[in-house]
Specification:
Helix content: 25-40%
Distance between the termini: 12 Å
Oligomer: single chain
CATH class of the largest domain: Alpha Beta
CATH architecture of the largest domain: Alpha-Beta Horseshoe
Number of helices: 17
Number of strands: 21
Strand order of the largest sheet: 10-11-9-8-7-6-5-2-14
Largest sheet: 9 strands, mixed
Shape: globular
Radius of gyration: 21 Å
């Protein structure tokens, strides 16, 4: 990948395609009444997954792009959890019968801001209203800096099977520059505690493109991460959007790596992880060869949802908490990101849904195509158009739009099969964007809603 190409494509801002259509295109036309109608169409026993959002942190990491808030007292969390449990009952009451949950994920914010007893109480509330399948994956994100033995005990007793630990970079100077000081020993201790409690599946998050970060920093952090024997790793490029997240103004923009440096940083991390026995997964994930995610990718069964790459094949995702996004066969729904407005809606006995999107047949077709491209780095248009009842030439215009990427070696086109070569893996979003007509009218007004291509 030469400097001229990197400079040209770095200016593109494209979605991460954790859904299609993507969240910036949700509208208020989908609200509480539509959600209740969609829930009422579900059948008991339908496979489902659950997402729980905790919008609180003890301190703000300056790189953060999540919906979260720093709180100095526990009272706001107590009040929030009261409404979270009410929402669980409210949504369960709207569903005819009990759903079968195969995946549950706590996200944030910081889920271990929740006191151990309260964590157990929320899990008990979920289990009281939903059935869990044997071997269900029950996961939580964790901040190692605030993880206590009591938290670990409560998580293990509640059935947590997988923990995802934020790391970003192990260098003390880089940590200072992003306001997240977390020594390697602290992370290692958290991993050891979790495994000793029987929470054996460990995920780690790394970042590149941080202020002052170099290839040497990235290599060292990847090597230290491998020493903890994680099952999976996610490697994210820092997205600098201070116009959306004001706390990012604390980061020295002049110290951010340019496109060439970011590309090389990701390459160094990727090469280190693969050499250490990890299998590259999709855009930015890695997993041990025997992990279920790596097995699913090799079998062509890997999926992508709002939590990233997943083995979850269910069509129903119930999102609980402020800003949480849900997916149902008919479309997407999202709760208010303002946790005060979220609490007020639930306290009034109404879902906190403020926007969403009803899927069309065209949306489903393009979602299928984009998901396969994002998961497999290759897609054959012929069986997809046939499966959805579309004409064989349905994507001819989009194919023509890939000519530039093909000329630059970022995709290959053989008949109606599109493939992103390994050398261009980090740019797979550019190929997916060629099939996204929602981007066309929003290039000017909505470009800033998406992250840099590199």
């Amino acid at each position: 990948m030469n400097a001229e190409l990197l400079a040209r494509y770095d200016g593109a801002r494209v979605p991460r395609y954790t859904s299609y259509p993507t969240a910036p295109h949700f509208t208020p036309s989908v609200g509480p009444d539509r959600l209740l109608d969609w829930l009422g169409r579900l059948n008991g026993g339908t496979p489902a997954s659950i997402y729980l959002h905790i919008p609180f942190c003890e301190s703000m990491c300056w790189y953060c792009g999540c919906h979260t808030k720093v709180v100095a007292r526990y009272q706001p969390i107590t009040e929030y959890l009261e409404q979270l449990r009410r929402e669980i009952d409210l949504i369960a009451d709207a569903i005819p019968g009990r759903l079968r949950v195969g995946h549950l994920h706590w996200g944030g914010g910081t889920p271990n801001m929740v006191a151990p007893d309260d964590f157990s109480a929320v899990m008990a509330a979920i289990r009281a209203r939903f059935d869990f399948t044997p071997g269900a994956e029950v996961a939580t994100e964790i901040d190692p800096r605030t993880l206590t033995p009591a938290h670990v005990a409560a998580m293990a007793a509640s059935g947590i099977t997988r923990a995802s630990l934020g790391v970003q970079d192990f260098d003390a100077g880089i940590q200072q520059s992003i306001n997240r000081v977390q020594p390697f020993e602290q992370t290692r201790e958290a991993v050891e505690r979790l495994r000793a409690a029987g929470i054996g599946a460990i995920n780690l998050d790394l970042m590149y493109g941080l202020p002052g970060q170099t290839e040497a920093h990235c290599r060292h952090s990847a090597e230290l991460a491998l020493s903890l024997r994680p099952d999976r790793l996610a490697v994210f490029g820092y997205a600098h959007v201070p116009w959306m997240k004001s706390h990012q103004k604390m980061i020295d923009e002049a110290a951010l790596p340019d496109a060439i440096a970011r590309w090389r940083q990701f390459a160094v991390i990727s090469q280190t992880l693969v050499a250490g026995g990890q299998q590259a997964i999709g855009l930015d994930h890695f997993a041990r060869a025997e992990d279920a995610m790596a097995v699913a990718q090799r079998a062509g069964r890997l999926r992508r949802n709002f939590q990233g790459y997943t083995t979850d094949e269910s069509e129903v995702l119930l999102g609980f908490g402020a800003s949480a996004i849900g997916a149902l066969p008919e479309g997407y729904v999202q709760n208010s990101p303002d946790y005060h407005k979220y609490e007020s809606a639930i306290a009034a006995g109404r879902p906190a849904t403020t926007r969403g999107l009803a899927l069309t047949a065209e949306d489903r077709l393009r979602r299928d195509l984009i998901e396969r491209l994002m998961c497999d780095l290759t897609v054959d248009l012929e069986p997809i158009t046939a499966r959805h009842g579309a004409a064989a030439d349905h994507f001819d215009t989009a194919l023509a739009g890939l000519a530039g990427l093909a000329a630059d070696g970022l995709v290959t086109i053989a008949g109606r099969r599109i493939t992103v070569p390994e050398s261009a893996r980090p740019l797979v979003r550019l190929a997916a964007a060629a099939f996204d007509p929602y981007l066309v009218p929003s290039q000017e007004s909505g470009a800033a809603k998406h992250s840099r291509a590199i």
